[in-house]
Amino acid sequence: xxxxxxxxxxxxxxxxxxxxxxxxxxxxxxxxxxxxxxxxxxxxxxxxxxxxxxxxxxxxxxxxxxxxxxxxxxxxxxxxxxxxxxxxxxxxxxxxxxxxxxxxxxxxxxxxxxxxxxxxxxxxxxxxxxxxxxxxxxxxxxxxxxxxxxxxxxxxxxxxxxxxxxxxxxxxxxxxxxxxxxxxxxxxxxxxxxxxxxxxxxxxxxxxxxxxxxxxxxxxxxxxxxxxxxxxxxxxxxxxx
Length: 241
What we know:
This protein is α+β, with helices and mostly antiparallel strands. About 25% of the residues lie in helices and about 20% in strands. The strands form 3 sheets. A 5-stranded mixed β-sheet has the order 6-7-10-9-8.
């Protein structure tokens, strides 16, 4: 018979395995190696939201005064050329991009500014077509500076919840061109506002956050945990308390 103490040890070990493999969160799963899997979008985010600066890429382009901010074209080039070494799986991932910001009605962009999330500019955009806005509001559970009723500022607004991510900055470029390669969508992680920038008028600098489609796969997988269970039961059944 397995003693109560042995069962407790097994429970603790299983809890540690589940926690370390990232299964404590139903939407964002820490896959290790600086990679966060988003189950809602089936995409993998870099855990370091300012990897551009962490690796010194911005300094190599402009010098030392930009702290991770790039022009939109440089941000595009950085994401598409990024080679990220996954130390957990011993794999280098090369298929990165900037986050999508597609029309919320899936047809055409509505560039009217609203605070109730009914257009492609403004606050409280909950549509999964905007990966950054959806991450901010729905997945992480933050509030915009203006409520859907127009209350400004609403209590508790701002980036209060960051989840498993690190180094989240202010405004991030999307990879979406709103109007003929002139108006580029970007999102403010500081107050929850989605806007556009006309990059033909002047050189604008914002942060870049890389994401890739699909999952890098958990270590260990849930099936592996259950495969380990019989062995754990056997080991503890042989131990004397």
